[in-house]
Amino acid sequence: MLAVDEQMRIISSGTASIVPADDLRRKLARGVPLNIKLGVDPTSSDLHLGHAVPLRKLRQLQDLGHRVTLIIGNGTALIGDPSGRNSTRPQLTPDEIDANAATYVAQATKILDPDATEVLYNAAWMLALDLKDLLELASRFTVARILERDDFTRRYESQTPIALHEFLYPIMQAYDSVKIEADVEIGGNDQLFNLLAGRELMEKLGMEPQVALTMPLLEGTDGVRKMSKSYGNYIGLTDAPEEMFGKTMSISDEMIPRYYRLASSRSPEQVDAIEAALADGSAQPYELKRQLAREIADTYHGAGAGDRAQAAFDRVFREGRLPSEVPGVFVDLEPGDDGTVYLAGVLRQAGLAGSSGEARRLIDGGGVRVAGEQLAPGCYNLDPRELEGAVVQVGKRRFARLLRGE
Q1: Which family is it part of (predicted)?
Q2: Residues 209 and 144 in one domain
């Protein structure tokens, strides 16, 4: 393994905090692989570039010779992580959680080395706890301690309800660390309280406490809120290369260095040079975004994906043409009594809108084209002959060719 100072330099690069750094140095000095923990709750079906920030740090640690334990939080997801929330998370059913988790490992191992990754599901030990066990764990924390977390403090002071089960979340995440005897736990910097709860519980149980290593949160494509599927500002790891490319091109010029720093494989020195070139005008933001978009597509879809995605992007946005391949979608084009088809319903069936209401809003906002023609606000019904075989475009990047279904 590399010398401790060199490992500390690599590990510290790009991190938000290491608590405490001296403990990490002591652990590294033993010269044995550390057990590095990351927990991910399957609250949606897709991982995104925000999730990839800690995953990339984990891969760095694997390359240094350390072991990774990836915990799929199918138990903690039953509670719902309150971090950063101003209200209680809607509770998911076990079936919803299992469906979301089905592809998590495949997505995570786009970045992680599967041979150096152990995958565990925390429902295995959480749901095995009896009341006596749960009371014993809960007795190790006080309400005052739990209320120290910023999100709970804000909700308490504003008299926003805090459900009792939410208090259990940091305790259960801490218990994960106890079960796997974690040396280090990684999370976003909004996770620091939960990570320190793990350290605290391990100490109280007479174990060597874990080190908390936090990573910066990646802002979404809007450049304002953290990347999240619920905010609609995410770039999913399973997005098609063309979608990844287009979403990356939509970020603001101000966000270019941040995305290079957190979502690319560029070294800190290379990103510093990019930032300086943007500041002195020697680099064009548009070209830097194209380079970044190609790199992101290549990372998750293999070499050459970025070039193909760029060609598709140019075809649509520079040349004003249709993509070379438009997926065909079977939809119900049976006319109603008035001889027309309700287009909002067709867009929902085609997966171009999440609901008929969203489809109507898109039409009213001028965001829908049929056969190249922009629909006027309120144009919700069309002759089925105009739709069959036609290419429908929603927004800038979503296309489908409508085919008559049974």
Answers
A1: Belongs to the class-I aminoacyl-tRNA synthetase family. TyrS type 2 subfamily.
A2: yes
What lies within 8 Å, CB to CB, of 36 at 6+ separation is: 58, 61, 66, 67, 68, 69, 182, 183, 184, 185, 186
CATH of the domain at 278: 1.10.240.10
Q: Using one digit for the tens of pLDDT, what is the confidence trace for 26-66?
A: 999 999 999 999 999 998 888 999 999 999 999 999 999 99
Contact 40, 69 (CB under 8 A): no
Q: How far from 329 is each of 49, 152, 324, 381, 400, CA to CA, in Å?
A: 28, 46, 16, 19, 6
Is residue 347 a contact partner of residue 394, using CB atoms and an 8 Å limit?
A: yes
Beta-strand runs (E) in 170-267: 184-188, 211-215
Residue 266 lies in a domain: yes
Distance CA 391, CA 400 (A): 6
CA 381, CA 361: separation in Å to the nearest integer?
A: 14
Contact yes or no for 65/116 (Cβ under 8 A): no
| φ and ψ at residue 236, rounded to 5 degrees | -75, 145
pLDDT tens readout for residues 322-359: 676 778 889 999 899 899 999 999 999 998 988 888 89
Alpha helices in 264-397 (DSSP H): 268-280, 285-301, 305-317, 343-349, 356-364, 384-387
In terms of Cβ atoms closer than 10 Å to its own Cβ (0-12, 13-18, 19+), residue 338 is exposed
Torsion of Cα atoms, 309 then 312 then 317 then 318, to 10°: 110
d(CA 67, CA 304): 31
179 is in an annotated binding site: no
